[in-house]
Amino acid sequence: MMIMTPRHNPDSTGRGLLLLSLMLLAALAVVAILTRPLTPIDETRYVSAAWEMWLRGDFLVPFKNGAPYSDKPPFLFWMFQVGWAVFGVNDWWPRLVLPLFSAGGLLLTFSLARRLWPQHVGLGGQAALVLASALLWIIFSTSVMFDVILAFWVLIGLHGVLAATDGKRGGFAVLGVAIGLGVLAKGPVILLHLLPVVALAPWWNPGLKWRRWFAHTLLAVLLGAAIALAWALPAGFSGGEVYRNAIFWGQTANRMVESFAHRRPFWWYVPLLPLLLFPWFVWPAWWKALIQHRREGLDRGSRFCLAWMLPVFVAFCFISGKQPHYLVPLFPAFALLTARLMTGRTDARVGLPALLAAALGGVLILIATGHIAVLHRQVAALPPVWPGAVLIALAFVVWVAGRRGVAPIPNLALLGAALLALVQIAAMHSIEPMYDIKSMARAIKQVQDEGRPVANIATYHAQYQFLGRLETPLAEVTGASAMQWLAAHPEGYAVVYLDSRRQLAGVSARYKQPYRGGGAVLVNAQTAAALLAAPTE
């Protein structure tokens, strides 16, 4: 009699899917570097702050255009210094820092799944793949921003929390270190991401001695504060009174005031969820599994993910200042929960209607992005049509692969990654002329090397400092002070911004280019004065 043995799953550990997620991340990072320049005003500003630290040899206080820069803590800038110290100052290293932290986030998510569901050893690979293909996560994994680094330290902190629930004394120390470095990455907001799941520990991990638990949590918070203060105190004294007041007061109270001054309605995030959670939001099997899992009862890991995700999302809804990237540190929780929902669901399929909805949704994203940008004069032309056709074709390929037995999570993950790659490739030729300012920055450098002062006739975000390797700040002048500066520096040059690209043709300039829906010209003082005196259209 033949004995039937179960077929061995070559990826029962999930490491194959983890490797696939890392490969997708690497491919998307390459696409981003090849298709997108460092984009003003945010990316160029942050790299310029690190550049000025490098020039000064001052690694305590970030600078922007010659003045202490208090808006952001220094951790990201330190990471730039590390790469420049090894490889020399270059443009590509700052573009790799965030993908490297994102890769760390994928590895931490993989191992977090093993802590939460040790009985499901392959679940971590699925969670990493879901995370690597979620639209919001991969956008900010390839952008020079702070949120993926914040998510990395949130994940480290949550590993410490789980270690503490297992009785390991070092767990709270790990939590404290994560809080401290998270504060140095993006400020005290890390407490909002970590403390709710810690406070709800008696719900997702019954049997805790809550008095001891919260006492140790307080010690972890104090450890985190000590780590942050180890930078903030000497930096405050080094940067002067204005900088000191800004980092100890402005980054909390003033940011709350600014938040309330730029209100968005409390429901603002909700209609964005289909986009932010693309392509998983349009998968009917996900919704079916969520309902069924709720009926079956939530296990410890699912409760942990909900305690991590839901209180913070609700808190962000009630905070009036809202940005999509604020939600990035919640996405590992979504990825883990999605992987858990799909575990053991042999009936989960990616049907043709769901795939077409995903593909057509991606096409609409391409079309809407292009049309909105054109209406706001942010790009020179609409993106080409072919990426939408490719996306629809990929949806059919995924459907056929699913019918042949290919697992649904890798299928949808590849579709989500393909969407972001195609969006960037499609938009490259229409957006790059408006946002690639390296040539303008180099032209400014040439003028400064001639010994001539240069002014920026607008609020200056230091967008030219790093790209031009400028060693001298630009004069930031607006309004009446602009004409006074030009009169006092007849030998100088100025960067003047035009409302329309059409005006570029009529200006004789040292350098000129389209810029963010209008134009930017580098002109001598006399031409700049004439442009400012001319009536606006």
Question: What does the model show?
Answer:
- Among the domains are: 146-249, no CATH class; 352-435, no CATH class; 438-533, no CATH class.
- Helices cover 64% and strands 5% of the residues.
- It has 22 helices and seven strands.
- The protein has helices spanning 15-35, 42-56, 75-87, 92-116, 123-133, 135-141, 147-165, 170-186, 189-199, 201-204, 210-239, 241-261, 273-276, 284-296, 300-318, 331-342, 352-375, 386-403, 408-435, 438-449, 480-488, 525-533, and strands at residues 63-64, 67-68, 454-456, 475-476, 493-498, 511-515, 518-524.
- It has a five-stranded mixed sheet, with helices on both faces. Strands 1-2 form a two-stranded antiparallel sheet.
- Helix 2 (42-56) crosses helix 3, helix 7 (147-165) runs parallel beside helix 9 (189-199) and helix 8 (170-186) packs parallel to helix 11 (210-239).
Give the helices and strands, then pairings.
Elements: H1 15-35, H2 42-56, E1 63-64, E2 67-68, H3 75-87, H4 92-116, H5 123-133, H6 135-141, H7 147-165, H8 170-186, H9 189-199, H10 201-204, H11 210-239, H12 241-261, H13 273-276, H14 284-296, H15 300-318, H16 331-342, H17 352-375, H18 386-403, H19 408-435, H20 438-449, E3 454-456, E4 475-476, H21 480-488, E5 493-498, E6 511-515, E7 518-524, H22 525-533
Parallel strand pairs: 3-4, 3-5
Antiparallel strand pairs: 1-2, 5-7, 6-7
Helix pairs in contact: 1-4, 1-5, 1-19, 2-3, 4-5, 4-6, 4-7, 5-16, 5-19, 7-8, 7-9, 8-9, 8-11, 9-15, 11-12, 15-16, 17-18, 17-19, 18-19, 21-22
